[in-house]
Amino acid sequence: MPRVLGEDDYRELAAFRHGLRRYLRWAEERAQEAGLTPAQHQLMLAIRGRGPAAAPTISQLAAELLLRHHSAVGLVDRAVAAGLVRRTADPHDLRVVRVALSPEGAERLRFLASQHVIELGRLGLTLGRMADGLDIDR
């Protein structure tokens, strides 16, 4: 049976939610300062997060980004036009198209990722303390 939440729990949840939203807003602003849309930044991170040897397909990116397939196609099209990513043929199955970062996209992502790691470290103490106090399994 779930425990009854007290006033402190609600305050901590509200503060945690506010911290997450502030981080997301901060991340959107950093992407825009780097000349990217927030969606392009998320796309590039999803590609790089799979590792350099595992370029994803459009379907995999759509699932990762919680997008419909046609929306992911449009996002990739715009990122290709901006010089951020490139489409490549799968070496094992030429029918499969994979998406990889371009050198320009990789450089912009490297810059943004370093900023995000610093910001998350700064926020981590606050958000971590809030999350530690919540026992959602009870």
Supply the helix-strand structural class: mainly alpha
Count of the domains? 1
Query: Please, what is the CATH homologous superfamily?
Result: Winged helix-like DNA-binding domain superfamily/Winged helix DNA-binding domain
The helix tally amounts to 5
Outline type: globular
CATH architecture: Orthogonal Bundle
Largest sheet: 2 strands, antiparallel
Low-pLDDT stretches: 134-138
What is the CATH topology classification name?
Arc Repressor Mutant, subunit A
| β-strand amount | 5-15%
Overall CATH class: Mainly Alpha
What's the gyration radius in Å? Answer: 19 Å
Order of strands across the widest beta sheet? Answer: 1-2
How many strand elements? 2
The residue fraction in helices comes out at: 55-70%
* Overall pLDDT metric: 88
Separation of the first and last Cα atoms: 7 Å
Please provide the ordered H/E string of secondary-structure elements: HHHHEEH
Characterize the structure shown.
The protein contains five helices and two strands, in the order ααααββα. A hairpin with a 7-residue loop joins strand 1 and strand 2 (97-101). The relative contact order is 0.15. It has a two-stranded antiparallel ribbon with strand order 1-2. The longest helix is centred in the C-terminal third of the chain and has 30 residues, at 103-132. The protein is globular, with a radius of gyration of 19 Å. The protein has a single domain (7-132), classed as Arc Repressor Mutant, subunit A, CATH 1.10.10. The protein has helices spanning 7-33, 38-49, 58-65, 69-81, 103-132; strands spanning 85-89, 97-101. Residues 134-138 have low confidence and may be disordered.
